[in-house]
Design brief:
mainly beta, Immunoglobulin-like, three-stranded antiparallel β-sheet, 1 helix, about 10% helix, disordered C terminus
Length: about 160
Amino acid sequence: MRLRYVLPILVASALAFAYASPLPSHSYVPVRRHAVRDTIGSSLEVKLGEDVKFSLHVTNSSSKRVELRFPSGQTHDLVVLDAQGREVWRWSRGRLFTQAMQNKVLGTSDTLTFTETWRPEHGGTYTAVASLLSQNYPTQKRTEFSLPARTVSLR
């Protein structure tokens, strides 16, 4: 009758000892990698004219290559906001993108440039917001610019 109580106590003690012991030396411990986020630089260039031309430059300034991962075919986006912060134009609106993941590799000192064009309807003060939609190195740049009021010519 006493054996009936001793056996469960022995099993419980063995389990408690097994879970309380330190992990074996061959267990998996993830290796922490150095953060490379500071090695990706970006800039946004705006050229004014009849059309407004935007160029988002993304540069790898590290001594190692960097792989940018994108969750879809859309690698970037560009938005123009008016002086009140309302969206006036979005490059990706109405566009379709593949739903396949993609990668782009930037070697040391390589620059990836995305250039888009917008035809404004009115003059005014605007803010361009360009975004790199990378999963591992997302970045966003803002630049303000002004356009003169346009005169409409009747022909």
